[in-house]
């Protein structure tokens, strides 16, 4: 091994000969117990500010929010339980409309997510009820802090801004949606288990005859051979677990709202089995519904007149 | 008798050595075991006071009483579509006079000509209950599904009952040439004639003729399709 040469011929003279400015930066302030207690440094991308004359970053949280501004609903959605499908007939025209009935079960606002604290605005909604003994203590504290009973289902619904943050502890009924408006639903589809390619990806399969032997439902070739890499390309569709993932149904019309029974009747099908949890929010591909004045305002007006 | 230990080759007789030590160990354990008085509940609380929860766990609000909303929606629909309960009783399982598979049924529609045929399937699904009728028009077998509660269905009549109860729920075998009834047009026409006669000699007779005409027109109409 060659002898180690000095790193630089122009090495700095010993520290005691140097003025303070040339000394390496050592944190003096805020050092306690051997580590720094000074506040964290700012974000590394802070250099790229509007005033810096550089193009604005497209991968910043602010840019992400700006991108979502058009598609984020103005108000929260809610959680419901799918009860099953039936049909509605129009007595005049005789048109039959297949529909899904979902029911709301003690839906309440549990928490808020804000831009300052969490980086986005969202409303946490809880539904159903749960035995307090079956809830962990941290979660119990979370519920009691919000002043609501322990909930079985919890979900977040993003909203555009702080105006969409409904008061914590407020109960939401099906009248939150208007008859005739459009909603998007999200729910987990029925789990099919491990399924073959024909069912999972709608493949054709193979012929029944012409010398075919025991390969009628097989996937066939999984990729090209030598020259193309002799490998299976990433993302190749294959047999595997099917269903049980979230499916969004867009633009379902609200056919009926029954506040007394706590049900919503939605046009068409909603994915998932009976009894599954369905997230319902205003449709993002339709104009936002014009909601009559807030319930609280109406209440006050009613009290004033009475 | 105490077992003898071989001092020279202890490796071969571990068992005997350990037997001795085991006995000794048990003896010492017996000597040192000391009974401790059991702590009372209050004392245990003093030693480790239970952390008092400083938050209040709220009870759930009362649950809704409407457990079967599908039924509610269906009943609300039935109240509008079938106020007299006529259709429900016609296809009810408890009604002995109900229509069964194998009967020849006539469905009168609000728009379009009536359709008659052998009922080969009754699909009971609440508001979506439907019947499958089979007939032969222009010597071609025709099957039609009708939703019994549909507002487009004006009325359903039993033209002829099957003399022997069908022993199947769905008479799909009637599609086979061996069992196919063929056209039931003659039976339906005879039924309509008798109904027209029953209704009275006055205006009813003409009504019957109209119905007959309707029946004929239907054949032509279907043929064109």
Automatic annotation (TrEMBL), chain A:
GO terms assigned for molecular function: structural constituent of ribosome
Keywords for this protein: Ribonucleoprotein, Ribosomal protein
InterPro entries: Ribosomal_uL3, Ribosomal_uL3_bac/org-type, Transl_B-barrel_sf
A GO BP annotation: translation
Disordered: region residues: 220-244
The organism's place on the tree of life at top rank: Eukaryota
One annotated Gene Ontology cellular component of this protein: mitochondrial large ribosomal subunit
Transmembrane portions of the chain: none
SUPFAM superfamilies cross-referenced by the UniProt entry: Translation proteins (SSF50447)
UniProt-listed NCBIfam families: L3_bact (TIGR03625)
Recorded family membership: Belongs to the universal ribosomal protein uL3 family.
Official protein name in the record: Large ribosomal subunit protein uL3m
Gene: MRPL9
From TrEMBL, chain B:
Keyword list, A-Z: Ribonucleoprotein, Ribosomal protein
GO molecular function, one term: structural constituent of ribosome
Region spans: Disordered: 199-225
InterPro entries membership: Ribosomal_bL19 (IPR001857), Ribosomal_bL19_sf (IPR038657), Translation_prot_SH3-like_sf (IPR008991)
Basic residues: compositionally biased ranges: 215-225
Domain of life (superkingdom): Eukaryota
Pfam families from the UniProt entry: Ribosomal_L19
Keyword DNA damage: no
One cellular component (GO) term of this entry: mitochondrial large ribosomal subunit
GO BP terms: translation
Protein family according to the UniProt entry: Belongs to the bacterial ribosomal protein bL19 family.
Protein name as catalogued: 54S ribosomal protein subunit img1, mitochondrial
Organism: Lachnellula occidentalis
Gene behind this protein: img1
């Amino acid at each position: 091994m060659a002898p180690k040469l000095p790193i630089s011929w122009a090495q700095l003279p010993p520290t005691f000969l140097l003025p303070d400015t040339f000394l390496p930066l050592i944190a003096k302030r805020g050092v306690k117990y051997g580590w720094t207690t000074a506040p964290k440094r700012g974000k590394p991308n802070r250099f790229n500010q509007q005033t810096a004359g550089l193009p604005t970053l497209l991968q910043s949280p602010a840019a992400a929010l700006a991108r979502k501004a058009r598609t984020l609903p103005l108000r929260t959605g809610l959680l419901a339980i799918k009860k099953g499908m039936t049909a509605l007939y129009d007595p005049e025209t005789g048109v039959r409309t297949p529909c899904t009935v979902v029911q709301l079960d003690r839906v309440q606002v549990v928490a808020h997510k804000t831009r300052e604290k969490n980086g986005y605005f969202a409303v946490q909604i809880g539904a159903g009820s749960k035995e307090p003994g079956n809830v962990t203590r941290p979660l119990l504290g979370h519920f009691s802090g919000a002043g609501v009973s322990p909930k079985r289902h919890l979900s977040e619904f993003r909203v555009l801004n702080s105006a969409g943050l409904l008061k914590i502890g407020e109960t939401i009924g099906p009248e939150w949606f208007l008859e005739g408006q459009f909603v998007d639903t999200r729910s987990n589809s029925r789990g099919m288990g491990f399924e073959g390619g024909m069912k999972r990806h709608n493949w054709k399969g193979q012929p029944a005859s012409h010398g075919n032997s025991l390969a009628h439902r097989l996937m066939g070739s999984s990729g090209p051979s030598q020259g193309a890499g002799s490998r299976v390309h990433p993302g190749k569709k294959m047999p595997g677990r099917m269903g049980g993932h979230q499916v969004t149904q867009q633009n379902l019309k609200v056919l009926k709202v029954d506040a007394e029974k706590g049900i919503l009747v939605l046009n068409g099908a909603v994915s998932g089995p009976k009894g599954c949890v369905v997230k319902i929010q205003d449709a993002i591909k339709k104009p936002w519904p014009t909601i009559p004045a807030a319930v609280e305002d109406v209440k006050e007006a009613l009290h004033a007149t009475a | 008798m105490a077992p003898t230990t071989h001092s020279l080759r202890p490796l071969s007789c571990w068992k005997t050595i350990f037997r001795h030590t085991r006995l000794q160990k048990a003896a010492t354990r017996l000597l040192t075991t000391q009974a401790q008085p059991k702590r009372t509940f209050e004392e245990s609380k003093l030693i480790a006071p239970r952390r008092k929860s400083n938050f209040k766990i709220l009870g759930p609000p009362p649950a809704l009483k409407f457990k079967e909303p599908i039924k509610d929606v269906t009943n609300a629909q039935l109240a509008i579509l079938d106020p007299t309960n006529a259709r429900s009783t016609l296809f009810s399982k408890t009604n002995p006079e109900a229509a069964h598979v194998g009967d020849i049924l006539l469905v009168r529609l609000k728009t379009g000509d009536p359709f008659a045929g052998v009922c080969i399937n009754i699909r009971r699904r609440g508001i979506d209950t439907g019947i499958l009728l089979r007939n032969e028009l222009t010597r071609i077998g025709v099957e039609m599904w009708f939703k019994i509660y549909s507002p487009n269905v004006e009325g359903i009549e039993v033209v002829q009952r099957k003399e022997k109860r069908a022993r199947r729920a769905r008479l799909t075998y009637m599609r086979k040439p061996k069992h196919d009834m063929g056209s039931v047009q003659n039976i339906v026409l005879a039924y309509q004639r008798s109904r027209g006669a029953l209704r009275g000699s006055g205006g009813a007779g003409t009504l019957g003729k109209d119905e007959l005409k309707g029946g004929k027109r239907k054949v032509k109409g279907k043929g064109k399709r």
